[in-house]
Structure formats: C-alpha cells, structure tokens
Amino acid sequence: MYNWNTCVRDDVTGPEFLLPSPPNLTKQLKVISAANKRRIMVQAKLWAMTKHFDGFPKNSDFELKVEELPEPKDGEVLLEAEFLSVDPYMRPFSRFRMKEGDVMIGTQVAKVIQSKNPAFPVGSHVVSNSGWRTHTLSDGTGLIPILSEWPKDVSLSLALGTIGMPGLTAVYGIEEVLGLQKGETLLVNAAAGAVGSVVGQIAKIKGCKVVGSAGSDAKVAYLKELGFDEAFNYKTVGSLEEALRKASPEGYDCFFENVGGSFSTAALEQMKNCGRIAVCGSISTYNDSEPQTGPYPYFTMIIKQLKMEGFMQSRWQHKHPETLKRLLAWVKEGKLQCREHVTKGFENMPAAFMGMLQGENIGKAVVAV
C-alpha cells in the first residue's frame, strides 16, 4: 500500500516478491531493488516562479511542479512542511535573489520525517528557509529548531510570525534602530500586519504612546483591541497630514516605516526635532512597474535633524535565540496578542501571496499544508 501524502511505499510484501528457484534469482533481485527504490522515493510539490514579476504578480507567473526525492544520506534530514509563510519581502527580493524557474523563496515550519542527522530527530520541528515546497532534503544547514519550551497549546505557525522573523524585526527595529524610550510617541504604518501589530504592542509594553495607520475599518478596530492609543484608516481620512496631526498634535519621536511612498513624505513633516525613523519596508512601491520619484524630504530631515535608518533583522542574528525566548514569554504572559490569516492548502500559495500584497490579511499571513 502507498501513503499518498508522501508517495512512500509502505510495504513490499506479496507473492510477486517471493524468491523463486536459483535460475531466476538475479531477475527477482532486480524486481526487489526496483521496489525498494519506489519505497524510499518521496514526491515533493513545489511552486516555481516562471518569470520575474512585472507589476502586480499574476497566476501565470507561478507553476506547480512535482519532483522525486530520495531518502536522506548520512547527515541529512527529510522535512515535511506544515506551515508556510507569505511575506511582503518576497516581492522585491525575488528580483535579485531568484532567477526565472527557481522555487519561490520563503520560510516554513517543517517536521522531520526521516533523519540521518542526530541533531534533528524524527518528529522534531524546525524553521527552514526551504521556499515554497512540501518536502525538502536538508543537510541541516540553517535549520532552526523550535524552542524546547514551546507550549503545546500554542500553534507552531507563530514561529513564522510573532515568535519568528516578524517578531524579531519588531524588536530590533524598536530597540536597536529607534532606541525607543518610555514616554515617547511612536507612529507605525501597516500597523495591522505581521510586523506592525507586534511593533505597536511592544511599544505599549515599554510605556509609550502608539499611533497606528491601517487600510480598513476592521483593521483599525483590531488595533484598538491591541491597545493602540490612536488608530485611523488612511484610505478614508480626508487628509493624511491632518489625521497624523490629530492623532498626535505634539508630533512623533519615532516612526516605524513599513509603507513608503506618499505616507512617508507626510509622516516626516510630523516628526519632532531629532526624531528617529526605522525603515523596515516600502510595500506601497513593491509592485510599481516604474520607480516612484519625489518629493525628496532632505530639507525636512536637515531642519528637523532627523535620523533615518534602513535595517533587516538578520543583522542581529547572534541575538535571535534570546530574543525569540523574550517574544515567547510575552505571548505566554498575555502581553502579546497574535492573530493569523490562515489559507488552507499548498495549492493556494500564489493566491495567499497575492492576497497578502493586496492587504487582505489582519496579522500574519500563513498557509497551512
């Protein structure tokens, strides 16, 4: 019989495998050998990018493929994806980190289903940069074991969100780039997303005033549930400048930037003198066919003596183990609330990705295999 989830042959018993008389022994051994090969082969599904995105991604930019994987060699493990992440960075990074035909980049939570590496026993879970694949052969390089103290009642999918890359990004942006201090006022846009929602909550933990911007009334309501002091729907306000001024008449000490474009221009005008800006993302520009031009805020930055710094969480990789434990502790203590937008089915990876880019998600967007 076969296990159709992995296409692994469960058994090779049956009359066709009984050894006959010696004259036919060689032929029969070949049959057994072929059967054993079928037994160890695993069918992996993967999504490839057929061509670089031109403007907003389209279904025709992706192709679902199947490949056969052998059993692991010494030092290797076979991973089976349980949750896959879709993130904004995949759109711009695909341009310079991928070539046409490559498997889409991305992170997943996977279970070790076969192992010849003692560091990763069968049944353990890891975070892996395997891309959009259901199964992966790995030599263990870059695999991050799920924290040993992970509670059984907390979904492992959070290792792709609040207790994963987005959470790490929020912590380092606040602490390492902005140096946010108690009593200061923080502005964060895309505030109902995977990173922004964690940013706002950590700022509240640190005793700050938090203003969030989001793209729907439902998202604004969610920000209020999380304890944001002020929140507004940037799509429905008459004037973005007036909305920012009303939310914090005294201005902003810190700005956690996820959007870019015209929002950034308006926000910089509302910064206090010597304000700090952490540039995490620029999602409003990712799907542009032609680069946006101007206005250029340099004079505003000079007059206000602003500090603006771009960053990626990988800069502080040496701090990841400790920071992940801090994030997990905040979740267990109820200080960090987590919300996910879950799409079911590996076949729906492109739809989940495009939906996330259109802002359909509240919280972290993940795909459950």
Automatic annotation (TrEMBL):
Locations listed in the record: Cytoplasm
Stored Gene3D superfamilies: Medium-chain alcohol dehydrogenases, catalytic domain, NAD(P)-binding Rossmann-like Domain
Domain of life: Eukaryota
GO cellular component terms, A-Z: cytoplasm
Chief place of localization: cytoplasm
UniProt record, GO biological process: prostaglandin metabolic process
Single Gene Ontology MF annotation: 2-alkenal reductase [NAD(P)H] activity
Keywords from the UniProt entry: Acetylation, Cytoplasm, Fatty acid metabolism, Hydroxylation, Lipid metabolism, NADP, Oxidoreductase, Phosphoprotein, Prostaglandin metabolism
Enzyme class: oxidoreductase
Domain Enoyl reductase (ER): 55-367
Reactions accelerated catalytically: decanal + NADP(+) = (2E)-decenal + NADPH + H(+); 13,14-dihydro-15-oxo-PGF2alpha + NADP(+) = 15-oxoprostaglandin F2alpha + NADPH + H(+); leukotriene B4 + NADP(+) = 12-oxo-leukotriene B4 + NADPH + H(+); octanal + NADP(+) = (2E)-octenal + NADPH + H(+)
Protein EC: 1.3.1.48, 1.3.1.74
Classification via SUPFAM superfamilies: GroES-like (SSF50129), NAD(P)-binding Rossmann-fold domains (SSF51735)
Assigned protein family: Belongs to the NADP-dependent oxidoreductase L4BD family.
Assembly description: Monomer or homodimer.
PANTHER family: PROSTAGLANDIN REDUCTASE, PROSTAGLANDIN REDUCTASE 1
Protein name as annotated: Prostaglandin reductase 1
Annotated organism of origin: Oreochromis aureus (Israeli tilapia)
This protein's encoding gene: PTGR1
